[in-house]
């Protein structure tokens, strides 16, 4: 029953996340599904930068053993406020406070990569592009805006890593003379702790972890799927030959 309530709550929040600007191109997120070191780094980034406001209430810390972490490593590097290894990954901020700060309750991220999938592209591409298209905007309450999610309520939590950037826009006319405001590039105002390439790599690791978290058994499922198809193929061959042997003397 609790799981059903959580899923219903997440479905209510999905429309709020679907307000992305139509037509903005999504960048392809690198595949990190089989890179354990990248997934471990993504888990560290998730706990340090996302879990303060968001939750992953369908994931337990001890499931991180599946990406190569020991319980001792989980305790030393990912548990900061008295949690136990078997606890769910719940946020440390009060929900009512988060709603006051951002105008909306931060969504649970357990299956966010699936929730953000649409005709525009996979959810991993949406999140990968979203976390790399923040820019400084003093007209917004948080001081930040985003190309993929205009007027977003979430601040740029990774700004110290990426640095501060502003966005440049230009007015362009189409064939009918209609003027539209088009994105014309970023301008780096202050440097971050990471270089642009290092930041993109870190975001890719974080998105890879979010994708893994949405279905921790996905790699096992894919491996088993290959063996199941091979078994079915062998069974089909045997059934075909048995059928031919049974009917060969029947006229």
The major pleated sheet works out as: 2 strands, antiparallel
Rounded average pLDDT: 85
- Computed structural class: alpha+beta
The residue ranges in which pLDDT falls below 50 over 5 or more consecutive positions are 1-21
The main sheet orders its strands as 1-2
In whole angstroms, the N-to-C terminal distance is 61 Å
Number of strands: 6
Estimate the global geometry from the Cα principal axes: extended
Radius of gyration: 23 Å
User: What is the CATH domain class of the largest domain?
Assistant: Mainly Alpha
* Beta-strand proportion: 5-15%
Number of domains: 2
Give the H and E element order: HHEHEHHHEEHEEHH
Count of alpha and pi helical runs:
9
- What helical percentage do the residues reach? 40-55%
CATH architecture of the largest domain: Orthogonal Bundle
What does this structure look like?
There is one protein chain. This protein is 45% helix and 15% strand. The chain is α+β, with helices and mostly antiparallel strands and 251 residues long. The strands form 3 sheets. A two-stranded antiparallel sheet has the order 1-2.
């Amino acid at each position: 029953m609790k799981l059903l309530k959580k899923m219903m709550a997440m479905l209510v929040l999905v429309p709020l996340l679907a307000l992305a600007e139509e037509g903005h191109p999504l960048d392809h997120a690198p595949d990190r599904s089989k890179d354990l070191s990248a997934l471990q780094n993504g888990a560290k980034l998730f706990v340090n930068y996302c879990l303060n406001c968001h939750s992953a209430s369908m994931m337990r810390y001890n499931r991180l053993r599946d990406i190569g972490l020991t319980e001792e490593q989980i305790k030393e590097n990912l548990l900061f406020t008295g949690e136990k290894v078997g606890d769910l990954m719940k946020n440390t901020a009060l929900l009512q406070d988060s709603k006051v700060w951002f105008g909306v309750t931060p969504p649970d991220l357990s299956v966010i990569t699936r929730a953000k999938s649409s005709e525009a592209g996979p959810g991993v591409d949406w999140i990968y592009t979203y976390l790399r298209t923040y820019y400084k905007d003093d007209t917004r309450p948080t001081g930040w805006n985003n190309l993929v999610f205009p007027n977003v309520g979430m601040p740029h939590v990774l700004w110290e890593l990426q640095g501060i950037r502003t966005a440049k826009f230009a007015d362009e006319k189409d064939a009918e003379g209609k003027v539209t405001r088009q994105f014309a590039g970023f301008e780096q105002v202050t440097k971050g702790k990471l270089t642009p390439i290092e930041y993109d790599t870190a975001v890719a690791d974080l998105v890879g972890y979010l994708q893994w978290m949405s279905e921790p058994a996905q790699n096992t499922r894919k491996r088993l799927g290959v063996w199941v198809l091979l078994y079915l193929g062998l069974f089909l061959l045997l059934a075909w030959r048995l059928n031919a042997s049974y009917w060969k003397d029947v006229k």
